[in-house]
């Protein structure tokens, strides 16, 4: 009974049901076409492995990326000493990532021209430890340091007396230039202090005992050598000659060595200081 009623309903509404079927089929077809078009335009679900562009020159890498249907954009540039400009240092996404076509790759590249630093930004250098300041310049400013000379100074050794850049003195005891532009990666040249090298009047060590000569040499920051044979008691010996020899106008450089000729007895030509003092007293009387 129900079957006959349904059959009768269908027969009476055949036209309407046929039209509804056409509409449903058209609607399904429309959605299928839209999905296919979206997939074609967006390449939905199509991924490819991203190549490694690091180490390549930017212009070459951009051509390669375009051939792979990728875009490339520079987001930062860094100067690195010893590297040419335009070399890719890093990329995002990283190499090996699965990405869609038309994906933008963001890269950091090297600069061809170094950044510059004003000399006024440098730390105080004069009178400071070279070892400590050279590390500070390297770590904080990417500047290298080179020792080019030493000069005598009464202060500690290896302390900064002058700094030069491209042959121009930018730091010394009397000035500190603040408007010199220094390239990152450049080399600053340093003049450091040393405890030797000052000119002194040549001391007269002849007629003195070795102990007296040694004390005098140490007080003047000089070194002495002697020709006394091994085993002899040099501390009781007397100086008979010295090289360089003494004269009122003779000079010696601090840190130099004086060669002494030593003998067990005092030279005959030496004046007895006791007799000389007694003579001076008689003359005063």
Helix-strand category: alpha+beta
Shape descriptor reads rod-shaped
Largest sheet: 4 strands, mixed
Strand order of the largest sheet: 7-11-8-9
Euclidean distance between termini CA atoms: 170 Å
In the CATH hierarchy, the third-tier topology of the largest domain is known as: Trypsin Inhibitor V, Chain A
CATH class of the largest domain: Alpha Beta
Number of helices: 6
Kindly state the mean pLDDT as a whole number? 83
In CATH, the architecture of the largest domain is: 2-Layer Sandwich
SSE arrangement, N to C: HHEHEEEEEHEEEEEEHEEEEH
Question: Any overview of this molecule?
Answer:
The protein has 285 residues and is of the alpha+beta class. The chain has four domains: 2-42; 48-110, Trypsin Inhibitor V, Chain A (2-Layer Sandwich), CATH 3.30.10.20; 116-194, Trypsin Inhibitor V, Chain A; 199-276, Trypsin Inhibitor V, Chain A. It is 29% helix and 28% strand. It is built from six helices and 16 strands. The chain has helices at 2-12, 14-42, 58-67, 130-141, 210-219, 273-284; strands at residues 48-49, 71-78, 88-92, 98-99, 104-110, 116-118, 144-152, 160-165, 168-171, 181-183, 187-194, 199-201, 223-226, 238-243, 251-253, 257-263. A four-stranded mixed β-sheet has the order 7-11-8-9. Strands 2-5-3 form a three-stranded mixed β-sheet, with helices on one face. The longest helix is centred in the N-terminal third of the chain and has 29 residues, at 14-42. The protein starts with a helix and ends with a helix. Residues 274-283 have low confidence and may be disordered.
């Amino acid at each position: 009974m129900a079957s006959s009623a349904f059959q009768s309903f269908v027969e009476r509404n055949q036209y309407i049901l046929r039209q509804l079927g056409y509409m449903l089929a058209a609607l399904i077809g429309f959605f299928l076409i839209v999905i296919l078009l979206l997939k074609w335009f967006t390449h939905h679900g199509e991924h490819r492995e991203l190549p490694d562009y690091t180490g390549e020159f930017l212009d070459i890498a951009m051509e390669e990326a375009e051939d792979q249907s990728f875009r490339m954009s520079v987001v930062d540039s860094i100067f690195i000493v010893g590297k040419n400009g335009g070399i890719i240092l890093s990329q995002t996404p990283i190499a090996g990532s699965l990405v869609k076509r038309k994906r933008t790759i963001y890269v950091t590249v090297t600069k061809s021209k170094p950044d510059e630093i004003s000399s006024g930004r440098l730390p105080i250098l004069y009178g400071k430890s070279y070892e400590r300041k050279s590390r500070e310049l390297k770590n904080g400013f990417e500047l290298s340091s080179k020792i080019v000379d030493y000069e005598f100074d009464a202060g500690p050794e290896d302390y900064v007396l002058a700094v030069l850049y491209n042959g121009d003195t930018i730091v010394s005891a009397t000035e500190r230039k603040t408007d010199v532009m220094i390239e990152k990666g450049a080399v600053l040249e340093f003049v450091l202090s040393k405890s030797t090298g000052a000119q002194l009047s040549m001391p007269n060590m002849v007629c003195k005992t070795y102990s007296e000569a040694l004390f005098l040499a140490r007080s003047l920051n000089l070194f002495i050598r002697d020709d006394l044979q091994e085993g002899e008691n040099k501390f009781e010996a007397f100086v008979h000659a010295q090289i360089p020899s003494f004269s009122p106008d003779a000079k010696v450089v601090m840190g130099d060595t004086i060669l002494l000729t030593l003998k067990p007895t005092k030279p005959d030509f030496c004046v007895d200081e006791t007799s000389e003092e007694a003579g001076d007293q008689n003359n005063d009387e």
